[in-house]
Design brief:
Number of helices: 16
CATH class of the largest domain: Alpha Beta
Distance between the termini: 23 Å
Helix content: 40-55%
Length: about 375
């Protein structure tokens, strides 16, 4: 293992210490007036009773969604479901989406790798990506003829903002001959300057697949250090960080261990190395889900975005989840009203510059050609 650090410019972005609460109001005309980023959407009261199926679903979600909120969500969920059928639309949701989205209107859920694979094979006219902008761009790269929508185009990513195509070009000139591995948490323009993409689930496998002793790995410094500890290749790293995962500290995890004896701690590899060292398991969101399902500990703490913990609490009600209060401000921009509005108006269609799309697509496809990784 060898590391060579390259500095980058300052990061931008906001950080929220707790999840955003969705607030709806009911007008005298029995319609729901829903804020939708600069406009309002009137949703008629549902013509059909959501029925026993939704009540059974709520029984699973009662510990993570208050009843009052659930009752307000129901007509929006019904309207989204109707529009999905009308538009021949499918909704892809990342594991960091809030429970009222993740467990109700989503057709396919997963981590970035799973969503990329699903996007490549999806059978629909319209794809709605409930995630951040680079995820929607990736879906568009793999489905250039389909309409890809994102409910809020301002849903960005601190990692994607940390590096530009010009930065990649300078690194290539500085380290001639070194292949460039780019984390999917980047813009299409950056992917176009790369040789191959990776996710946190397959980063080690991607690096090991390259016939080179030196690899430029961008832009996540902490994920790069995690990979570097598991390969003999020299990695040239960039100092990009996830604004959520970088907030976790080893001292914080030790406090959780003291407060909750026996707690099983799982950490995302975007966390600082000292946090990974303090955890019991490190892996992508998909890895963490599999590990929780396999081990079934009595108490769990996930060092990652809070919605992931809340979604798993609904899946594993017998496990006590100690929820972190770190929410991604970008993921939180995606809301049920926003999904409804983008399906109704077909606004916020994602487009990729044709000058970069073919090269960016090839970098993503090279990653997918490695095939499904063996589950561990």
């Amino acid at each position: 293992m060898a590391l060579n650090m390259v500095d980058c410019g300052p990061k931008t972005g906001l950080f929220f210490n707790c999840p955003i609460m969705l607030i709806l109001s009911i007008s005298e005309e029995k319609k729901m007036t829903i804020p939708a980023r600069g406009s309002t959407v009137d949703v008629p009261a549902p013509a059909i009773d959501p029925g026993v199926g939704m009540e059974a679903l709520y029984a699973r979600l009662a510990d993570v969604i208050p009843r009052a909120e659930w009752d307000l969500h129901l007509p929006v969920i019904a309207a989204i479901s109707a529009l999905k059928r009308e538009r021949r639309a499918i909704i892809l949701s990342h594991n960091y989406q809030t429970p009222e989205i993740f467990h109700t209107v989503s057709d396919l859920t997963g981590d970035s790798l799973a969503l990329a694979r699903e996007a490549a094979a999806v059978d629909a006219d319209v794809i709605v990506v409930c995630g951040v902008h680079f995820m929607a761009e990736t879906a568009k790269l793999l489905n250039p003829e389909k309409t890809v929508l994102i409910p809020d185009p301002e849903a960005g990513c601190s990692l994607a903002s940390s590096i530009t195509p010009e930065d990649v070009g300078r690194l290539r000139r500085q380290y001639p001959g070194a292949p460039v591995v780019t984390y999917v948490n980047t813009s299409a323009a950056v992917k176009a300057e790369s040789d191959i993409c990776c996710t946190s689930a397959n980063a080690v496998e991607v690096v090991e697949s390259l016939d080179a002793d030196r690899v430029i790995f961008l832009p996540d410094e902490f994920l790069g250090k995690y990979v570097a500890a598991r390969t003999d290749k020299e990695l040239i790293l960039w100092k990009g960080h996830c604004e959520v995962h970088e907030k976790f500290t080893a001292a914080e995890l030790r406090r959780y261990r003291q407060q909750y004896p026996g707690v099983y701690i799982l950490a995302h590899p975007e966390c600082p190395p000292e946090v990974l060292a303090e955890s019991d398991f490190t892996g992508s969101t998909a890895d963490m889900i599999r590990e929780v399902g396999r081990r079934r500990p009595e108490q769990v703490f996930l060092a990652t975005e809070i919605s992931m913990s809340r979604n798993l609490a609904a899946e594993f009600p017998e496990i006590r989840f100690i929820h972190p209060c770190y929410a991604c401000p970008h993921m939180q921009r995606i809301t049920l009203p926003g999904i409804l509005e983008c399906l109704r108006s077909m606004r916020h269609a994602v487009e990729v510059d044709p000058l970069v799309s073919e090269r960016a697509r090839r970098a993503v496809e090279r990653m997918l050609e490695l095939g499904p990784r063996e589950k561990r």
